[in-house]
Amino acid sequence: MKIFNNREAIHHYLDDLRSAGKSIGFVPTMGALHAGHLSLIEAARGKTDIVVCSIFVNPTQFNDKKDLENYPRPIEEDLQKLRAFNCDVLFLPEVDEMYNSSEFWKIELGNLDKILEGKIRPGHYQGVTQIVKKLFDTVKPDYAFFGQKDYQQIMVIAHMVNKLKIRVKLVICPIIREDDGLAMSSRNVYLLPGQRKQALALYKSLTLAQELFKTESLKQIKEKVNAFLRSCPGIETEYFEIFNARTFEPITSKRATTMIALVAARIGKIRIIDNMYLNKENLY
Ligand code: AMP
């Protein structure tokens, strides 16, 4: 696996491969890699000639300084995992490689940065789009792979790709879960054993919603799932919503083609998000 810390160097290296007719698949991450990330590497491996992963803990998308400082950075383990999964190229820049001290970024995201995660984490999606645009400019991938786990993030990136006419195809990969259903996340390592059990409430709330979807109205589903979440010890629900998966707008009747339930909660200081399609196994 070739490792680059420098934007220019990786850009030229990949340019040469592109000129030689190779297609490039890109998996951006913040590291602390788990099976969810590695499933994206595998998907890229299956679809493109050259698999490029980036590991960069992007400061501009953190609204909590402590969260940024504490974010896990087990780089040696990450390198081993990437090599085991036949990643071809790793982009591993330092912060000053990606940002000047005085930089301004603002993209119109419509409603996307005013609802759900956008509302709870002000500025988060500006930071995400800022870094993803820089990474796309550096790697110039044919395909970029993202996890359904961060569904709203995909909507945001799709919006940016469309708006800025970036020539990349986005591929959405299913959520990889632990055996008991908890969606894998780099932040799960912070959960104490008791909290780890409590965190299952999110997965259970989504499977409950899926079950209720067969017979109940959306209003009833929301009421029952919220009541379930209230009954779960240690869980402080931030939202449980049902959205049109294509337009990413809230819905009140079952007329939308594909519907997705999205949930976010705090367990102590740790935030967990998850989602699940209600009327289709998988949209993509
Ligand atoms: P992160 O390192 O958290 O920024 O995530 C990098 C990529 O991995 C994003 O596209 C995430 O959506 C994706 N990802 C994170 N967790 C999972 C998971 N459990 N299953 C599938 N993809 C995931």
User: Which stretches are poorly predicted, pLDDT < 50 over at least 5 residues?
Assistant: none
CATH class of the largest domain: Alpha Beta
How many structurally independent domains? 2
Instruction: Describe the largest sheet.
Output: 6 strands, parallel
Give a list of the ligands: adenosine monophosphate
Main sheet strand line-up: 1-4-3-2-5-6
Give the CATH topology of the largest domain: Rossmann fold
Instruction: Indicate the percent of residues in helices.
Output: 25-40%
The separation of the N and C termini measures 30 Å
Structural account:
This protein has 284 residues and is α/β, with parallel strands linked by helices. It has two domains: 2-173, Rossmann fold (3-Layer(aba) Sandwich); 186-277, Pantoate-beta-alanine ligase, C-terminal domain (Pantoate--beta-alanine Ligase, Chain: A,domain 2, 2-Layer Sandwich), CATH 3.30.1300. Helices cover 39% and strands 19% of the residues. The chain contains eleven helices and nine strands. It has helices at 7-19, 35-47, 65-70, 75-84, 95-98, 117-120, 124-139, 151-163, 193-198, 200-212, 218-230, and strands spanning 2-4, 24-29, 50-55, 89-91, 143-147, 169-173, 235-244, 259-267, 270-277. The strands form two sheets. It has a six-stranded parallel beta sheet with strand order 1-4-3-2-5-6, sandwiched between helices. Strands 7-8-9 form a three-stranded antiparallel beta sheet, with helices on one face. Helix 2 (35-47) links the parallel strand 2 and strand 3. Helix 7 (124-139) packs across helix 8 (151-163) and helix 10 runs antiparallel to helix 11. The model has no long low-confidence stretch (mean pLDDT 96). Bound molecules: adenosine monophosphate (AMP). Adenosine monophosphate (AMP) binds next to helix 2 and strand 5.
